[in-house]
Amino acid sequence: MPDRDKNTLHININTGEVFEESPIRSYILRYFKGISQPRVLLLIAFIFLFVFFYGKNEESIGKNDIGKIESIQESDILTKIIPTEGDGECTAILLNWNRLDNIKIIVKNLCQYSMFKEIFIWNNNVDLHLSDTMFVDTHCNKIRYYNSPGNMYFIARYLACSMAATKYCYFQDDDWMIKHLRSMYSNFLRFPNLIHTDTNADVYSSTNWKWCFFDDDINLHSCYSWVGTGAFTSRENVLNSLKMTSKTEMSSLEFIYGDMYFTTYLNQVPYQLENSLIELPQENGFSLTGKDRMLNKLYMHKALIRLYNYLSLLKSKNNNNPSTQIIEDTKEFSPTLYERDVRSPCHNDKCLFLTNKHSFPNVKLFKYKPYINISESERLHSSFFNTQHFISYPYSHAVDNDNSTAWISQDVIKKDDYIGLDLLLPMPVPLTFNLIIDHNSDYFNHLSIQISHDGSAWIQLSPSPKLDISSLSSTKNNLLSCKFRIRETGFRFLKLVSTRDWNFTFSIYDFAFDGVDNNDNEVIDDTVNNILGNNDNDSGD
């Protein structure tokens, strides 16, 4: 038998107890009625028995939550510190159709991240047979692939995740390059019961406003979000969504369009981050315009109607038979949409931008009505509130390392409004922060600077750090730069809280931090050496 590359997985079909005991066996069988039995059995065997071959050799997980130290030399020692929480606990799921070159680029990008135990490629193209040699130039030892005997469309990613060897999954399509994975994953680990998605400002204005559907009477609180531009989810959520396909008696055609049902069926608002996206070549793909876009809206509408009818029936049964109530948790998970403050990843994937300022009206202003289709709902929302301001001045512009762009809030600053950063892990060294704004300078005289290790319990710094405020005369606007040094260590979160009302909005052009301070070089060097000593057994990305 020829040698087989250790970077890929070859699957042999062998029926046994795995499929019989699978938690989604019944759901799969329902949707293949009428299809030839040999083909169904072949597909099922492949789907559920590949779990036997999934990484028996567990990757070690770093125990030091401070982070790994990369073997590179930079002036800012923070480039050497990365989060390790959740290492090896996630499987990346990719769908291949007709853009294998894109898949290879994406694999190279994903392989560098230690959170991924495996990168599983599901090949939906029956005319292309994935083989070992196709991925040699990726130099990645995490690859697994599966050549499907038929096109399973979007549901394939959820079937793959349902049998992953890890408790978390990551999804993305083959026409995007996602560069802010550590920051998104760090927030996901704080709230793993919520799907975390990543998208640009234009789509974000739909997924947080036009595509949100609420009805408190039946505990409907669902927003639709794309997963193709990056999404982390728990395997448990995927299984729950698949179970809903049976509870709502979905048709086989609806089943294969799983992307249009997944986030809706969980009846929880995804935790969505906004930032700029990098496009890869997009020919031969599923379009978001024209006929494909209308199909998306059609199945989004079908998903909502099925969820609405299910929740209505559940409420009716409980009201009619209070002594035999059906116990099912349909409450909105915490943090709810209006309890969240994480908005965008920083340009270098080293932090997340925080603010309590929301950019759209309360989604409950429109009560969901199943007889209103998605296009009409979009029109109603657009006539009530124009999202163009947010699209032009989104959250991500506050942390994109570009002084020519800005996040400008929709309304004026009120007492207790804040901006801040999640640094992704407890900082072991003193930090210097730099805030560039287009505000009245008196704003800085009415700030409470607070830090936290968990984002819940906050400590006000007293005395407050010295603020070094200067004018940036080289810019077109009258921008102010405010630098300050925090010598306390061990905190992860920072926020600047306004202690009074103002008659102007937030206008944040940049908010960044580093660990460079010539006066602290000796302290920093000792700290880094200690961390390196504590991470001798850790491997970098």
From TrEMBL:
SUPFAM superfamilies recorded: Galactose-binding domain-like (SSF49785), Nucleotide-diphospho-sugar transferases (SSF53448)
Gene3D superfamilies (alphabetical): Galactose-binding domain-like, Spore Coat Polysaccharide Biosynthesis Protein SpsA, Chain A
Domain of life, per lineage: Eukaryota
Keywords for this protein: Membrane, Transmembrane, Transmembrane helix
Ranges that cross the membrane: 39-55
Name of the featured protein: F5/8 type C domain-containing protein
Source organism (scientific name): Rhizophagus irregularis
